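Today's session is about reading a structure prediction critically. Students often jump straight to the picture, but the first step is always the sequence itself: look for stretches that repeat, for charged clusters, for runs of hydrophobic residues. Only then move on to the predicted structure, which in these notes is written as discrete structure tokens rather than atom positions. Here is the chain we will use throughout the hour.
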Amino acid sequence: MSQVSRHSSGTEPTTLRQRLRKFVRPAGDWPMPINPASIEHERRRAEARQNRVADAITTFSGSMLFVYVHVVWFGCWIGFGVEKYPYGLLTMIVSLEAIFLSTFVMISQNRADAKRQVIANEQWRTVTEEDKQNVELLRLSNQILALTQEVREMATGFRDQDELAALTKEVRALRSSGPKPSE
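Below is the predicted structure for this chain, in token form.
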């Protein structure tokens, strides 16, 4: 059974542009962040052009198209004899590319760290808010317990009063129905 690759909109990529975009930017299929703080952080980050450029370069350099382009490029460079062995210019170009790509990887790591920090801050705010709610619930529970204990004490007092009243009635009934003391 073969898996069908889906475009980020949930449909098959039909145009050449959609297929190429899927090939160049495979991260488009990843789910969007669901944490509201993360979504807001991504929105603010995307407002800066340099961040969008860095994200695009990092995404492209992490794709298989990047690998294929380099295989073709190196193969053509060597195959067409652009320069003679030991390929000094190619080595310098690849070294510069590695320097820039490592910089973009660090930028990407910094961005991931910033995103994790935003999420951690949001989680801390949530935990703090939950702690406040828990303290309030505990206070209300203690009040309910105190009121329940007071009601029980009052009920016990009423029960004792009811028993005393019933005994008093019995005593009066016995006095009134029993033999009268002689005078």
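Discussion point for the tutorial: Confidence is low (pLDDT under 50) at residues 1-8.
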